[in-house]
Predict the 3D structure of the following.
Amino acid sequence: MEEALNRIFEKYRKEDGNIISLLQDVQETFDYIPEEAVNWFSHKLDIPASRFYGIATFYSQFHLKPRGKNVITVCRGTACHVKGSERLINRIFMELDVPPDEDTTHDLKFTIEKVNCVGACGIAPVVILNKEVQGKVTLDKLMKEIKKLKTSE
């Protein structure tokens, strides 16, 4: 980890970067922002860790916990909600046996994200499987896609 952090630090200094670009590089390297990385940069740059966390928690692009290999994003906007997105979410959590108050499976194969709106109301309910938008999703269609992802492991 130290070697990767040093590479990011050198890039930060060379390009006169900012905290956002530094956090983007950390996340790109580790797929999330580890606490150890925040503390390392906090000490190295003499910037309070709270500044890093303030930025990382403000922007939804940043993740402070490891994420699964497969990301399932479910829209919870009004149109999607009316067309059954909550039922889809509940079934995904049951199917993948995600622990209560968590969003990632223990084996780090799946992460489930619930978002307020993806802006595709005309094809509600919408689920995004690994950045591929699926519209007019039914429970059967969704379970088939999840089973495909499970077996492709």
